[in-house]
Amino acid sequence: MMFIFTRTELLSVSRQILVFIGFIVYATLLTANDSPSLQALSTSAVQNGWKAFEEDKNPDEALIHFNHAILLDERSGKAYFAAGYVNQAKGEFDTAFDFYSQSLKYQPDYPSTHMNMGLIMLRKGKMDESLRLFERARSLAPGNGKIYANLAMWYYMNKRYAEAWSAVKDARSRQARVNPRLLEALEQQLPEPEPALPDR
């Protein structure tokens, strides 16, 4: 079987291979005493990956950088998280969950990791595990409104509508956006409670 690549595709593949080889050669030349340099290079690779993802809108290139970062520093929780995030954005949920799990080994108290893993479990219908992850995220970052917005979704899906409205209130008080479709669906099940009047 023959594969025919366009010139643009060949240049893209060649560039990725050269970048990969460059990282490997550099890492190989460094000695054990130079571990801070490896970590610095790993951090730079993570930064380049986020640039590729957020500015260049190129998730595949971003993943190349994040994988390089992991090769250079296998204890980089930030690199594992970044790879998990991009895979989740691409819809590769199992792969994303695996990267997040690795990330927790090196930065166990990072709330966004727990929250994003909770979202994946929610998508899979694993409600108990999802709630545990959301609640862990909330305990680590009680000021993060996104966590409450996701908890509101969890409560809605489990028909705990009053608690869903409470989570919506908590999210709003922290300036977090709540999905309008969730609010509409929740309103159909249980109208939003009226705010209490002050005592007179």
Provide tags for this entry.
Serine Threonine Protein Phosphatase 5, Tetratricopeptide repeat, 10 helices, 74% helix
The CATH superfamily of one domain appears as: Tetratricopeptide repeat domain
* Helix content percent band: over 70%
- Low-confidence blocks of residues: 29-33
> Helix and strand succession?
HHHHHHHHHH
Instruction: Give the distance, in angstroms, between the N- and C-terminal Cα atoms.
Output: 83 Å
Task: Describe the fold and architecture.
It is a single chain. The protein is mostly helical and 200 residues long. Among the domains are: 37-91; 109-192, Tetratricopeptide repeat domain (Serine Threonine Protein Phosphatase 5, Tetratricopeptide repeat, Alpha Horseshoe), CATH 1.25.40. The chain is 74% helix and 0% strand. The protein is built from 10 helices and no strands. Helix 2 packs parallel to helix 4 (77-89) and helix 7 (127-140) runs antiparallel to helix 8 (145-157). The longest helix has 23 residues, at 7-29. Residues 29-33 have low confidence and may be disordered.
